[in-house]
Amino acid sequence: EIVLTQSPGTLSLSPGERATLSCRASQSISSGYFAWYQQKPGQAPRLLIYGASNRATGVPDRFSGSGSGTDFTLTITRLEPEDFAVYYCQQYDSSLLYTFGQGTKLEIK
Amino acid sequence: QVQLVESGGGLVKPGGSLRLSCAASGFTFSDYYMNWIRQAPGKGLQWFSYVSSTSAYTKYADSVKGRFTVSRDNAKNSVYLQMNNLRAEDTAVYYCARGVGRNFDYWGQGTLVTVSS
Q: I need a labelling partner for B35 at 20 to 30 A (CA). Which of A10, A93, B81, B112 fits?
């Protein structure tokens, strides 16, 4: 089973700053099978990025994804108050299993 | 608009059973795989099951294999999760989610399952 490790565990930033979140896989994965989600307290997760770099419908362009192989990044330029949440990465592998990272909490500094 | 609404959660004793339902609307249900994903209190997300669009294929994570069964009824636009031999570690919010590609593009609001004596 592929393990996804997200860093940092918590990121403290101010509105207007740039956020860079990392997700590292225990082995190489297909970019087409990699995604990022945002979860706010008491809410279901929301798909942000699929295929490593494609924004889902309605996602603002301040969110961008990049990476390949084992290293993937979610970047949020110019943080808005509503962006403070927990972010999860997710992958699908050849054993037909889906796994999530443990999450990065983006909090207001 | 796409809506997924879970129901059936509650308090159950260890070893007990529970059946969750997820009612879908706003899309052609029979075209999509459906997934179950759970989140233990204060923890991260864990995918554990899917059922293919025609019910031909199902898949389970090892943590629930042999105890949980996923099914669907395309005529009723619903997906189900039969959970048997429940354990304390199954306590979580259970989400159904639509699968697209290899991701989950719509999620329900979740239903809480608590396993405790």
A: A10
Q: Are B40 and B60 in contact (CB under 8 A)?
A: no
Mutate to test the interface with A, among B4, B103, B106 (most CBs of A within 10 A): B103
Residues of A in contact with B47 (CB under 8 A): 90, 97-100
CA distance from start to end of chain B = 40
B65-87 pLDDT per residue, tens = 999 999 999 999 999 999 999 99
Digit-coded pLDDT (tens) for A60-109: 999 999 999 999 999 999 999 999 999 999 999 877 689 999 999 999 99
User: What string of H, E and C letters represents the secondary structure of B50-78?
Assistant: EECCCCCCEEECCCCCCCEEEEEECCCCE
- What number of C-beta contacts closer than 8 Å exist between A and B? 54
How far is residue B101's CA from residue B33's CA, in Å, rounded to a whole number? 9
